[in-house]
Amino acid sequence: MQVSAQTALEVSTLDGIGGVLADWMTATVPVAWAPDLSTLAAASVLGALYAGRYFGDDRITTQIYTLGTTTDFDALDHIATVTHALNAAIPAGQPPRAQLSVWREFEEATRTSRSAEADIYTQAVAEWSPTFGRDSVLFLADTSDLKSGATIASRDTARGWWVRELLARFVFVPAASGKDDEPPDVPADLPDEVARALHLHGRLARGGVVRAGTNASDAFADARQAWRGRGPLWAHAETNALKLAMIRAIAADPLEPIMRQDDADFGIRIVSRGIEALEALIAAR
C-alpha cells in the first residue's frame, strides 16, 4: 500500500501493464505524492486502451475519468507529459484514445468569458462523462483552480448543478506535494519495458466480460448501502468504483480477468476518499 500525506488514501498497486505504467510515472515524477496520481493516471490510460473490449456483468465498460489535484504545477506538467506520451503509444486499431486535459486550461476558459461558464461546464458533462463520453479522460487540476469550481458547485443555481454533476462523474484524487532536491527530467520516450508491455497487450488482450467474484460483489453491496442517500456527488460513485476495479482486474490478467475483493476495495476506497475530499472543499466555500 502507498499512502498520500494529504488524504491518508491507501492506494493498492496495479499489477501487470498497469503496474508498469504507474511505476514509471512514480519513478520519474519529481514529487513525493506520485503513487496516488500516477496510479490513477495509469488507470485512465488503460481505460482508453481497454474501452469497448471489456465490460462487467452489468455491461459497464472499462472507461475511466480521473481528476487529480496538487499545489505543484511541475507535478501536473510531468503527469500530463507522461500520459500524453502513453496515449500516443496506444497501438493503432485500439479503441478511442484518451483525451487528456489540464483543468487549469479549462478553468481559464471560464474566466475569459464568465457568461460562457455554464455552457463550458455543460459541454464537459456531455463530452467527458461516463454516460455520454466516448473516451477516457484525465483532468489535472491545481488546488486553487479546483476551489474555483467548488465555489460554483456550492451555489443553488443551474450553473452549480452542472459543476456538481461534472465532479460526480470523475474519480477525484487530491495529492500532497513535496519536491525532491534535484527532480529528474521528464522522460522524452517510453521506456523499453513500457513499449514491450503495450505491444504484448495488443497481442494478448482479447476482451470479454470481467467476472465479479463473490467477495467483490459483497464489497460493492456494502458500499452501495453506505453511499445511499449521501448526496449528488455520490450519484456515480458505484459506476466509477466498478470501472477502477475492472481495470485493476484486467491489468492483472487480460485473458481471464476476475474482479476480486482487492480490486473492489481499490475502487471503493479511492472513490470514497475522493468524494469526501470534494464535499469538504465545497462545504468550505
From TrEMBL:
Domain of life: Bacteria
Protein's name in the database: Uncharacterized protein
